[in-house]
Design goal:
A 6-stranded mixed sheet has the order 2-1-6-5-4-3, covered by helices on one side. By secondary structure, it is of the alpha+beta class. Helix 1 (about 1-10) packs antiparallel against helix 2 (about 15-25) and helix 2 runs antiparallel to helix 3 (about 30-40). The protein has 7 helices and 6 strands.
Length: about 200
């Protein structure tokens, strides 16, 4: 940091401010990293080579808010799935992304589409709840992994048998020009517990 400041005294250009930002970022101080990098951006705001770095520091500074937003998307998406509402679900899809899903019946992974949301099932849900939701981000802050616990209860429509549902799951989200979009979801029964039954076609 001392030598960066000495460099700025000799030549107060964008490179020295960018270097200052890198030093702050290495210390986990993303607010000052962002401030320093924005000074570098100010030298050439149009197509600045430092803009991407500034955006990264901004995302890291606001990690908690971004995490809360992605979790809210997961909850809203699950609500849309449970209610069979494709119109509500599709805002979390991207036209160039095939969503891969693994159900808690442990059948093979498959591509999740509109027909899977409106599909008739053998069960009726009494309730379904997500909890213990935590996020992890890739270094570029453009990909998030959510892990969670899911609990619920459903009844078979043909024999009225009730099953307590208990799984652990994860989902992967990617930040696009159109916001956060889902890439993949996966569920598995917790030890000694039950997921969903075989899917109907």
């Amino acid at each position: 940091m001392k030598y960066v400041k000495m460099s700025q005294e000799i030549h107060d250009g964008p490179n020295s401010h960018d270097s200052m930002g890198e030093h702050y970022a290495a210390e986990g101080d993303y607010q000052n990293a962002l401030n320093a990098t924005l000074k570098a951006v100010d030298y050439a705001t149009f197509a600045s080579p430092y803009m991407k770095t500034a955006q990264l520091y901004s995302a890291k500074k606001n990690k908690k808010k971004i995490s809360a937003k992605v979790i809210a998307h997961q909850e809203s998406m699950q609500k849309a799935i449970m209610s069979g509402d494709y119109e509500a679900y599709k805002k979390f899809e991207h036209p160039e992304i095939q969503v891969i899903t693994g159900d808690s019946n442990l059948n093979p992974f498959y591509i999740y589409t509109e027909k899977d949301i409106v599909i008739d099932t053998l069960i009726t849900w009494e309730f379904f709840k997500l909890s213990n939701m935590e996020t992890s981000f890739f270094p570029d802050m453009n990909t998030a992994v959510i892990t969670f616990i899911a609990d619920g209860k459903y009844t078979f429509t043909d024999n009225a048998k009730t099953v307590s549902y208990a799984t652990r799951g994860s989902s992967v989200w990617n930040y696009t020009d159109d916001g956060w979009k889902v890439l993949q979801t996966s569920y598995a029964p917790r030890k000694g517990r039950f997921g969903i039954p075989e899917r109907t076609n």
